């Protein structure tokens, strides 16, 4: 089959696009409101976009609390969403007002960061401390505002030593979860290696 995305006449019961860009890593983004309230939300339009220096991005469909907080404060933290934390991750996606601390809502523990003010998720084995770089505004449909891509530089990284062996991070042991299409997720618990030509 083939369909033009501007018409989106794919004939399927659900839009297949996100099921085709899968898996997408989940950025579990914490930020601080002006009043000091902790904000935590998952974003699966998320990825690393460079490594030296490391930059990450996430894309917000509309001006959500994370975007507002990060543009105002210049900082955010990205904790790793793992299979063990999947239910808490899901709770933090609730559409609640900026006055609600989603870390507390999900029963998670804030842990202090070293270089930025927002806390990381203590239960998560990995966290990136990030400095806001810029927002890229994507064109939307029919002249409307599209998604807003927030780019940040990773200035500090926490790794739980229990997941390090022989000088390498054991990704399968971390069991990161990723978003597929629909309500589906994947977990990375098996890996393979391949040498480059
Ligand atoms: C796994 C998962 C991935 C999500 N990815 C995105 C995303 O990429 N962009 C987005 O705008 N919302 C995404 N959402 C929805 C947000 O998490 C949700 O709107 C949340 O309330 C936003 O919180 P905030 O207003 O505190 O930033 C996702 C939800 C889940 C459960």
* Termini Cα gap: 34 Å
Q: Can you list the strand order of the major beta sheet?
A: 3-2-6-9-10-5-4
Helix content: 10-25%
Instruction: List the bound ligands.
Output: flavin mononucleotide
What report would you give on this structure?
By secondary structure, the chain is mostly beta strands. The protein is 14% helix and 39% strand. The strands form 4 sheets. A 7-stranded antiparallel sheet has the order 3-2-6-9-10-5-4, covered by helices on one side. The protein has a 3-stranded antiparallel sheet with strand order 1-13-14, with no helix packed on it. It is globular. Bound molecules: flavin mononucleotide (FMN). Flavin mononucleotide binds at residues 26, 39, 41-45, 59-61, 64-66, 90, 93, 95, 179.
Summarize the structure.
The protein is mainly beta and 197 residues long. The chain has five helices and 14 strands.
Topology:
Blueprint (H helix, E strand, L loop, with lengths): L16 H4 L3 E2 L1 E6 L5 E6 L2 E6 L2 E7 L4 H9 L1 E6 L5 H6 L10 H4 L4 E2 L8 E2 L4 E14 L5 E15 L4 E2 L2 E2 L1 H4 L2 E3 L5 E3 L10
Antiparallel strand pairs: 1-13, 2-3, 2-6, 4-5, 5-10, 6-9, 7-8, 9-10, 11-12, 13-14
The structure holds flavin mononucleotide.
């Amino acid at each position: 089959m083939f369909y033009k995305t501007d018409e989106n006449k794919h004939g399927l019961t659900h839009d297949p696009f996100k099921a085709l860009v899968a898996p997408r890593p989940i950025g579990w983004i914490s930020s601080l409101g002006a009043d000091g309230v902790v904000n935590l939300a998952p974003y699966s339009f998320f990825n690393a976009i460079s490594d030296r220096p490391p930059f990450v991005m996430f894309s917000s469909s509309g001006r959500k609390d994370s975007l507002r907080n990060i543009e105002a404060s210049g900082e955010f933290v990205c904790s790793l969403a793992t299979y063990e934390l999947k239910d808490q991750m899901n709770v933090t996606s609730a559409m609640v007002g900026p006055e609600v601390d989603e870390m507390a809502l999900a029963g998670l523990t804030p842990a202090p960061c070293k270089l930025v003010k927002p806390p990381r998720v203590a239960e998560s084995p990995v966290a990136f401390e990030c400095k806001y770089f810029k927002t890229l505004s994507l064109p939307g449909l029919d002249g409307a505002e599209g998604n807003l891509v927030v780019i940040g530089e990773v200035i500090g990284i926490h790794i739980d030593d229990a997941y390090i062996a022989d000088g390498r991070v054991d990704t399968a042991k971390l069991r990161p979860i990723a978003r597929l299409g629909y309500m589906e997720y994947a977990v990375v618990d098996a890996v393979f290696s391949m040498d480059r030509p």
